[in-house]
Every structure is written in C-alpha cells, then in structure tokens.
Roadblock/LAMTOR2 domain-containing protein (Stomoxys calcitrans), 226 residues
Amino acid sequence: MQNEKKDKNKRTIAYVEEVFRQIQEKPDVTDIMILNSKGNPIKTTMEMSAAIQYAGLYEILRDKVTMGLQKIDPKDDITMLRVRTTTNETLIVPDGKITVVAIQKARDRYHNE
Amino acid sequence: MQNEKKDKNKRTIAYVEEVFRQIQEKPDVTDIMILNSKGNPIKTTMEMSAAIQYAGLYEILRDKVTMGLQKIDPKDDITMLRVRTTTNETLIVPDGKITVVAIQKARDRYHNE
C-alpha cells in the first residue's frame, strides 16, 4: 500500500482509533461508524448488518453531494453533511480517504420551545 | 388542483411568501430557494440559471435521503438536511410538498478557534 502519490490524506489505524475515541466522549452520540475509501465500515459501534445498511446510504450521499458541489463550485469542499430526522441527527464528515459518521439524539432547539 | 386527499401538507402561495420572508430576516442567510413538489424553484433570491442548477442537486439529495431513511426506519421523518462546505452551509428542509433551501455563510465554530 505504498501509493503515496494519491494518499495525501491517508488515515492510519491509530488515527481512526483516536477519532473514534474522541467522538465516543461526546454525550449525545449513540452510534459511530468509520468508513474506508471503499465505503466499507472499518470501525463501528453498530451491529455489522446495520452498519452495512447504513454505510451504503452514507457513501451514496457523500458521493452525490461531492459530485453536485464539484459542478457548482469546484474550488469548494464539503466539510460536513447532516441529516436530521425526528428521532436523531446523523453527522457525516469526509476526512481524507475515510468518512466519519456519528449519530446523535435529535435535540429540537430549532422547534418551538 | 383540488386533490385534497394527497395534499394534507399543501402549501399555499401565502405560506411560501411567509416562509421566504421569515428566512430573509436571518442575518447570515445569503440565498433562499423554495422548490415545489416537482423540484422546480418557485421563489428564490438566485438568478434563474443558478437556481435551476442548485435545485436539481437539492431534489436528488432530498430523494436519496428520504429513500434511504425509508429503508432504515419507515416511521422516521427527515426534518433537515445540512451540507456544510468551506465557504457556506446549505440547509434543506422538506416541508410537506415544498422544499425550503437556505444558504448561509459558514461559521467555523467547530474548527480550532
């Protein structure tokens, strides 16, 4: 795996472990998933069957948004993608060759309260 | 247009105008776009060529996320989708038959500062 030319943003196992640990410390996070460059989960708190199901969706989303942005402004980069539902909020962060996904409980601060 | 059966969440022109006005009051918002159920921009601050380009992307995103969530948890609903780039953040809110899109300046509160 010495193709360093393409791997400016290579992420080591130690890096992945550290990211995972830092996210786990956040109080509202219920699940974490880290995907490799092929979109496969390499570390996660989920059961494998759920992880694979989610991973497919995240990867499609990351790709669609990246391609869309490429058309609109090729100089801009995605830093975070959030999907908020009634029960939770999913944060998808493209980080070099990996994608970091964190799922946290939804807090309705923007609703009428 | 009296197909009320399907139109539980029908949005009137007055509703659209009011949503638009409320978003325009937010200080960091640079652009607003409201899409109808077909994904076409019905009211926007953008130039039409840009609006159409963006609208296509938002509609794809809304559809992908909705379909994905449907598979994962059919009882859950999307309340907001956010795409953050280095220069701005786009908020996409499915609201019944319309989709409300607001683009605001990115604030780097989650970065190292």
